[in-house]
Amino acid sequence: MKTLFAIALATIVLAGCNTVAGFGKDVQKVGQAVERGGKK
């Protein structure tokens, strides 16, 4: 279940980034989301 969520989230994030700088910010947001998910 967590793997499916991570894949879906990564797909949405990658589809939303338009530049290298945007990609870096998106990766950071994914990392934060994973951390929050791990704390639950």
TrEMBL record:
| Signal peptide positions on this chain | 1-15
Among Pfam families, the record links this protein to: Entericidin
What GO CC terms are in its UniProt record?
Answer: membrane
- UniProt keyword annotations, A-Z: Cell membrane, Lipoprotein, Membrane, Palmitate, Signal
What GO biological process terms are annotated to this protein in UniProt? response to toxic substance
Segments passing through the bilayer: none
InterPro entries tied to this protein: Entericidin
Establish whether keyword Transmembrane helix is in the entry: no
The text of the family note is: Belongs to the EcnA/EcnB lipoprotein family.
Q: What is this protein called?
A: Entericidin A/B family lipoprotein
Question: What is the protein's species of origin?
Answer: Pseudoduganella lutea
Q: What is the lineage of its organism?
A: Bacteria, Pseudomonadati, Pseudomonadota, Betaproteobacteria, Burkholderiales
